[in-house]
Amino acid sequence: MFEAKLAQSSLLKKVLDALREIVEDANLDCSSDGIKCQAMDSSHVALVSFDLSSDGFEPYRCDRNITLGLKLATMTRVLKCAGNDDSITLRSQDNTDTLTVLFESPNQDKTSQFEVKLMDIDTEHLGIPESEYSAVVQLPSGEFQRICRDLSQFGDSLVIACTKDGVEFSGSGEIGSAKISLRQHSMVDKEDEQVTVELNQPVTLTFSTRYLVSFSKATPLSSSVTLSLKAETPLVVEYRISDVGHLRYYLAPKIGDDEETEHIDDCS
Amino acid sequence: MFEAKLAQSSLLKKVLDALREIVEDANLDCSSDGIKCQAMDSSHVALVSFDLSSDGFEPYRCDRNITLGLKLATMTRVLKCAGNDDSITLRSQDNTDTLTVLFESPNQDKTSQFEVKLMDIDTEHLGIPESEYSAVVQLPSGEFQRICRDLSQFGDSLVIACTKDGVEFSGSGEIGSAKISLRQHSMVDKEDEQVTVELNQPVTLTFSTRYLVSFSKATPLSSSVTLSLKAETPLVVEYRISDVGHLRYYLAPKIGDDEETEHIDDCS
DNA sequence: ATACCCATCC
DNA sequence: GGATGGGTAT
């Protein structure tokens, strides 16, 4: 028996929104620790994973490890049925291929219950090596989203260059070229509006703009985002989910003259 | 070398929005006086021009006269990348076909720089004769926009009739007819909400509603607008841009039974 | 790529 | 309540 109740169904909605553009189906791996998920986009260029600790749920019960294969389009439909402040409970009996989703309104006056067919999803679980990154940039997530969106007007590739002074995003295409610079400044009142660059070594890498735009759909999850860069290593884009866990994207840099994006599993 | 910095990039954005529906490409004529622009719509029915005095820029530098041929769709994309309170700097070296656009955030922590290819645009510079108008109407720009939009539901033609008492806008079409009257009243608290009619002679003229609706896209530039009317003379719709200059549209009245809009250069 | 509708912010 | 921006649908 698996049962997990989250006070804010909206949180799960945001997580789903953050995945939807990247993957169609995903396995939730549920254990006594909590819920983990790892999924690759269909072209094997990007990987997304998230971790929700059991501490974020109340109650949380997972008698034995269970994998819930979800069709995200279905889950999106279901989650649209949640009220803004509804709680959400996920429940699955062992040896069934069904997930029960239950929404409860704050005042308990309305409950909505859904039964969703589970899928059997082929999965390749990649171990992601811990790296010492050349640069770790933290910036407001809204700023990152804005930059990705703005630069998407200027070509398919987005260059991220980190120096001790800050970080520079650039792109160029038919209509012209664009370069956006953020200066490091940690002296700001609000921690969430900081831009910080932890630099071991200056680094400049090129990525597919389209994927970065998709990644930034996770913006509602956190007010800030961190980018971890290292040559010939997938970029990590991480959104912390307060008190519960995190959501991370991985994207291999484009390499060489043709600036093709490498498959992420070519870079292991 | 040409360089002009405007504290409010939003001002230039509004100017572009005011042109976009009328013309696709436009030449900015830059001199030590400032930046002027004059462009005709593709069917030669309407003309738009604006004047931005060098006083509105700081710094402003224009070593020698230079014409910047802009594709407005490109400039629109670039200006979308500006933050709300960013300054904007336009810069062009002599003998290049490139315009540099630089946005700087108020706190200087973010800068965005764009390189845009300039165009070579055929231009016919019309001299616009000064006229003694039969009537000059001033009204709140939002009111004018609302009236144009409302009357656009009632036919392609919009009649403007000025008398000593005020101004009357009317239209009629298949679904019925509409007449909107504004009484002159200069006794209002706020000058911007006044409706005034300076009348030399009562005048009633008919215009293409569609163009007037387009003109009223300039509403964000000024809280009031003036309409200058005279028989057989292009209507002038003027928005003052405080401290910097103005933007004007010209539109020949429809004449005769068929109520065809005359080409503006037929009326010189 | 453009237009319409919905949601969020002022 | 209105306006602006973003997302979705055509």
TrEMBL record, chains A, B:
InterPro entries found in the cross-reference section: DNA_clamp_sf (IPR046938), Pr_cel_nuc_antig (IPR000730), Pr_cel_nuc_antig_C (IPR022649), Pr_cel_nuc_antig_N (IPR022648)
Residue intervals of the Proliferating cell nuclear antigen PCNA N-terminal domain: 1-123
Primary localization class, coarse: nucleus
Localization (cell): Nucleus
Gene Ontology biological-process entries: leading strand elongation; mismatch repair; regulation of DNA replication; translesion synthesis
Membrane-spanning parts: none
Keywords, alphabetical: DNA replication, DNA-binding, Nucleus
Gene Ontology cellular component terms for the protein in this record: PCNA complex
Gene Ontology MF term list: DNA binding; DNA polymerase processivity factor activity
Pfam families tied to this protein: PCNA_C, PCNA_N
Domain Proliferating cell nuclear antigen PCNA C-terminal residues, every copy: 127-254
Domain of life of the source: Eukaryota
HAMAP family tied to this protein: DNApol_clamp_arch
Family as reported in the entry's similarity comment: Belongs to the PCNA family.
Function summary: This protein is an auxiliary protein of DNA polymerase delta and is involved in the control of eukaryotic DNA replication by increasing the polymerase's processivity during elongation of the leading strand.
Record's protein name: DNA sliding clamp PCNA
Origin species: Geodia barretti
